[in-house]
Fold each of these.
Amino acid sequence: MTRFVDVQALSGLVRQMGIAGFVTALADTLREDFLRWPDFDLSARLASHTALGVIELMPVSDAKRFAFKYVNGHPGNTAHGLPTVMAFGVLAEVETGYPVLLSELTLTTALRTAAMSALAAQAVARSGSKGSRRMALIGNGAQAEFQALAFHALLGVDELRVYDIDPQATDKLVHNLAAFPALRVHRAAGIADAVRGSDIVTTLTAAKTRAAIITPDMLAPGMHLNAVGGDCPGKTELHPDVLRAARVFVEYEPQTRVEGDIQQLDAGFAVTEIWRVLAGSAPGRGSDAEITVFDSVGFALEDYSALRLIHRLALEQGVGRDIELVPAAGSPKDLFRLTR
Ligand SMILES: NC(=O)c1ccc[n+]([C@@H]2O[C@H](COP(=O)([O-])OP(=O)(O)OC[C@H]3O[C@@H](n4cnc5c(N)ncnc54)[C@H](O)[C@@H]3O)[C@@H](O)[C@H]2O)c1
């Protein structure tokens, strides 16, 4: 049977563990899998674009497990009462091809993207006494609370400066984060105001356009930029000179060249895959003054890690239920029996 974890089941699991607990477990799982990077059969995702958005399939496998995620990105969806990003995914055994897990991945995508951002920032943002305490959060939609709480739990960020062109999105974020009093939240008057004095700048905007939300005049020495919303051809958030002024870290270079903010630069622009920094085979930040960018687009291995964690927790804690996704009893050669 296939374990089915729907939105209610996943949200129950997250409520039980707490967001910090879940994101910490996910960051540990991501680290384990990124340290095994050469074990995986990697490919850029398959994307089907329209003027309104994109629908993508994201496969990855190692010798034991195959995973894929279905995900969309439609910035206009919220005006029709639908999320910008919606997803589900499957984990299967490589040995037989049997799908062992079918799971919601909309809530999970927000959790895994936040865990990945925090893991990358742990590797390359400033730490120690010149650490990262204040974060600007530009774009206060569905992903925002998860990024805020992952950076709070894993990097010690305790002050947020938040801004969205939609004040109601910021109202929602401020309201939701009021339950976490150790995290001080200030509404900024605009993007430059939010970024000024911040150690980390997280961009989480959704607009299918070549935006330059962060411009070079906003940069300060030592800043780390966690650029999450530029994740599709023709959809960016950073001015190209921001990238040129920084050391840029990516997930899977062939995919990020097409989808990330670095799509604006030529193919010779040097970037470092973050797994190399985690594995110690490439340097991270060079100095306290260096500007670093994590040009996040979302990679299949992150969903593999999330599905692997959900499957383990679901079996251990009885989360979700078993469904007959593929025919169970009876002769495997007599498929016709199901029609009688
Ligand atoms: N890199 C990844 O792994 C990953 C994962 C999930 C989502 N994303 C991307 O992150 C972005 C945010 O996703 P979401 O689910 O929160 O979307 P959302 O639609 O819920 O929220 C986006 C917010 O950005 C705001 N915004 C748009 N333009 C802005 C601007 N110029 N300045 C300030 N705010 C602006 C909107 O008003 C909205 O509130 C999307 O672009 C999505 O595709 C990336």
Note: The pocket of nicotinamide-adenine-dinucleotide is lined by residues 73, 75, 78, 84-85, 109, 113, 138-143, 164-166, 169, 204-207, 211, 213, 228-229, 231, 296-298 (CB under 6 Å).
Amino acid sequence: MDVDPKFHLSQPPELFARVDQEPVPDEFAQSIVTTTLDKAINWARKNSIWPMSFGLACCAIEMMSMIASRYDISRFGAEVMRGSPRQSDLMIIAGRVSNKMAPVLRRLYEQMPEPKWVISMGACATSTGVFSNYALVPVNQVIPVDVYVPGCPPRPEQLIYAIMLLQKKIDQEKHVVEKVLNLA
Ligand code: SF4
């Protein structure tokens, strides 16, 4: 049987030969490199979250048990609780925010280096919860929030789930390299 010369193995079809030899345009080459770097940076960031040791009320007890051996947040790379906002990239608002505490919270948030994230843990932090009085303020009126955790108090598993959602959000961050190099 005669073999069609187009399908001869030692001679790649013309289409493939042409595609292989086409030069990659400069703009594509750049985006391929920065996209890959973006992914590497996002991967490193999402697996090394450093939360601040900071609790405001009863929700903080659940936050502490999330760190302890039973729930073991180190499985998600977020166990390095820092005592200083300058070394933290995650603030967990665990408890109600009073008017008196709001400026302190804001100051701590501003002292955290970029990039930084915030989880609002529990009904009190998010909406003043069962108290709902003049002394309290919802946390999103003081600082931006990335993930909200419902409940009073939320269980440690819920907080772990919030951290997993935050990891997903960090993973989808775009133009990271430009932001790091201050080009965005
Ligand atoms: S949400 Fe419930 S457990 Fe959390 S701080 Fe408010 S009252 Fe306490």
Note: The pocket of iron/sulfur cluster is lined by residues 57-59, 95-96, 122-124, 129-130, 152-153 (CB under 6 Å).
